[in-house]
Amino acid sequence: MVRRPNWLSFRRFAAVTTALTLSLITLGVYTSATGSGLACQAQWPLCSDQLIPALTINPDFIEWFHRVVAMITGFFILGTAGWAWRRGDRRTTLAATGAVVLLPLQISIGAITVTLNGLLPWGYAAPTHAAHLIVALSIFTLLSLTTIYGYEKHHRRPPRLRSKRALGVALGALVVSGLFSRGVPLLQYSPGAQAWYYASSLVAVVALLATMYWLADVDPLGRRLAGSALGVVFVTMLIGRDLIVYTPTVQLLNFGLYLAVIGLVAAGLWRLVDTDTPSATTRLSSEQSE
């Protein structure tokens, strides 16, 4: 029997799986934005009658590479769920199993997108893009929760300090996403910019999920602020996939949502910093004693 090395723990394996899923979603956005999703002569799992296309940067290779990363990530998701079942923790098992349950649906939508796109009215259209992204975000959210649960007993800092740092990460990630966002007209919304936008937005998603979990029994208002910010981030990510005609009005809405999420995260961070001051700590202690 092969013995598992000490450094290979469930929480680290789950974190790697979550990171792989983040990379896969980012790569999927880039693949779609470059039009490479329509490559490979609408074949799946083959690509232009080949198992492995020419290893040069071209639409066929980008689509094929996306499929390879998706396959590897899928095995990691299955492994995470299997390990969670062995651990026996109910929350972790439910979250990891939920990701596995959604996996066949995501694969099916992806296969339809790259094969039947021209044959079905909804093959390569906004509804399919929306479904593909929503399922991907759902899987990513469940895996993020699996990782957060896995680290539950390995924290040395109190929940408030953890949450303050997480909100700081979220704020930084959102500032970066704003540089590449279509709603903030600073840079051209190129395929590369779209990939960076979604990568940084997904980092913010993880940080906000962690904040919501850690503040559940500590600061209900801070938790609601983080939850509201998370909802707005999801909406802006959906808008960024051209699911609706991107008119100047939609761009203004997108910009307004971006300012809103920055405000929500900043308010949550200010609240935690304010309650960490000596006077605030004394006030909270006196209120609890009463």
From TrEMBL:
<feature type="transmembrane region" description="Helical">
    <location>
        <begin position="252"/>
        <end position="273"/>
    </location>
</feature>
<feature type="transmembrane region" description="Helical">
    <location>
        <begin position="196"/>
        <end position="216"/>
    </location>
</feature>
<keyword id="KW-0479">Metal-binding</keyword>
<keyword id="KW-0560">Oxidoreductase</keyword>
<comment type="pathway">
    <text>Porphyrin-containing compound metabolism.</text>
</comment>
<keyword id="KW-0812">Transmembrane</keyword>
<protein>
    <submittedName>
        <fullName>Cytochrome oxidase assembly protein</fullName>
    </submittedName>
</protein>
<feature type="transmembrane region" description="Helical">
    <location>
        <begin position="92"/>
        <end position="116"/>
    </location>
</feature>
<dbReference type="GO" id="GO:0016491">
    <property type="term" value="F:oxidoreductase activity"/>
</dbReference>
<dbReference type="GO" id="GO:0006784">
    <property type="term" value="P:heme A biosynthetic process"/>
</dbReference>
<dbReference type="Pfam" id="PF02628">
    <property type="entry name" value="COX15-CtaA"/>
</dbReference>
<feature type="transmembrane region" description="Helical">
    <location>
        <begin position="65"/>
        <end position="85"/>
    </location>
</feature>
<feature type="transmembrane region" description="Helical">
    <location>
        <begin position="228"/>
        <end position="246"/>
    </location>
</feature>
<keyword id="KW-0350">Heme biosynthesis</keyword>
<keyword id="KW-1003">Cell membrane</keyword>
<dbReference type="GO" id="GO:0016020">
    <property type="term" value="C:membrane"/>
</dbReference>
<keyword id="KW-1015">Disulfide bond</keyword>
<keyword id="KW-1133">Transmembrane helix</keyword>
<keyword id="KW-0472">Membrane</keyword>
<dbReference type="InterPro" id="IPR050450">
    <property type="entry name" value="COX15/CtaA_HemeA_synthase"/>
</dbReference>
<feature type="transmembrane region" description="Helical">
    <location>
        <begin position="166"/>
        <end position="184"/>
    </location>
</feature>
<dbReference type="InterPro" id="IPR003780">
    <property type="entry name" value="COX15/CtaA_fam"/>
</dbReference>
<feature type="transmembrane region" description="Helical">
    <location>
        <begin position="122"/>
        <end position="145"/>
    </location>
</feature>
<keyword id="KW-0408">Iron</keyword>
<dbReference type="GO" id="GO:0046872">
    <property type="term" value="F:metal ion binding"/>
</dbReference>
